[in-house]
Design goal:
The chain has nine helices and 13 strands. The protein is α/β, with parallel strands linked by helices. It has a six-stranded mixed β-sheet. The protein has a five-stranded mixed β-sheet with strand order 2-6-5-4-13, with helices on both faces. The termini are far apart. The model has no long low-confidence stretch (mean pLDDT 96). Bound molecules: zinc ion (ZN).
Length: 271
């Protein structure tokens, strides 16, 4: 007897039962991006972002579907040209009959989603949403506790090691004792006040502009909590493995791969 064939729609339906598209932010564009819901799927490549390298890897691994965290299409393109970054990606996918699906802020907001998984990687216990929805079915960011308090300096070592990053930007006293930790994978500057309200000792997120660091200062200029910018890619990279594990459990006959190369264009220079 032949194995049941699954199509892109079957994977989408399963993912959306976990991360309902209604959880997504209003600016977002989650779901099918390119291709067809009826695409038969036996091999899937998972990546944080779509790049030419990811498409070539999918072709080489004979994947008929690519699953990304960040959507390729945020705004409607006015033209699709080989000469443009997005245009050539769309045309390459179309020529090779590869379907692209994105699961973004709906996965950030889901139980067991991007930020809760980040909290787990950092070793936090009692993980809950930092900003839960009214009914608690979804939320943004996560908060939890370290097993034992540790100085900020040691906590930064933990972030470096567990997120495998040599560089962090931060504010806070190196001697501050860290027990309660708030996190948000990716651009989480809008949750700084939530982390302060929750009495977090530190908030770890990414994409923080200079002025965001002033939001943690008290009237005397001292830091009310520590604030760490660990990088967008670095705080979300684990999403690839999160999706791979979740899908492999539910579709054991499909082969899921995490992309083998980093998709971030950013390099870090340390002198
Ligand atoms: Zn992101």
């Amino acid at each position: 007897m032949s194995e049941k064939n699954f199509c892109a729609h079957d994977l989408a339906q399963a993912l959306e039962s976990w991360a309902d598209p209604s959880f997504a932010e209003s600016y977002d564009n989650v779901g099918l991006q390119v291709g067809s819901a009826t695409q038969i799927v036996r091999r899937v490549l998972i990546a944080l972002d779509l790049t030419p390298g990811v498409v070539e890897e999918a072709i080489q691994k004979e994947c008929s579907m690519i699953l990304t965290h960040h959507p390729l299409l945020f705004r409607s393109p006015s033209r699709i040209l080989e000469e443009d970054f997005i245009g050539q990606l769309i045309l390459r996918l179309a020529k090779k009959n590869i379907t692209l699906y994105s699961i973004h802020t709906n996965l950030d907001a889901a139980h067991g989603g991007v930020s809760i998984a980040l909290a787990e990687i950092l070793g936090l216990h009692h993980r809950t949403f930092l900003n839960p929805s009214d009914d608690g079915t979804f939320g943004m960011g996560a908060i939890g506790h370290l097993p034992e308090p540790e100085p900020l300096k040691s906590f930064l070592d933990r972030v470096h090691a567990r997120l495998k990053t040599p560089s962090l930007r931060y504010a806070g006293s190196d001697e501050a004792q860290i027990k309660t930790v708030a996190v948000c994978g990716g651009s989480g500057g809008s949750l700084i006040q939530s982390a302060l309200d929750a009495k977090a000792d530190v908030y770890v997120t990414a994409d923080l502009g200079y002025h965001r660091f002033f939001e943690i200062l008290g009237p005397d200029g001292s830091c009310q909590m520590a604030l760490v910018d660990a990088g967008h890619y670095e705080t979300e990279k684990h999403t690839e493995q999160l999706l791979c594990t979740w899908l492999t459990e539910r579709f054991p006959t499909i082969k899921f791969y995490c992309t083998s190369a980093p998709t971030t264009p950013i390099k870090i220079s340390i002198r």
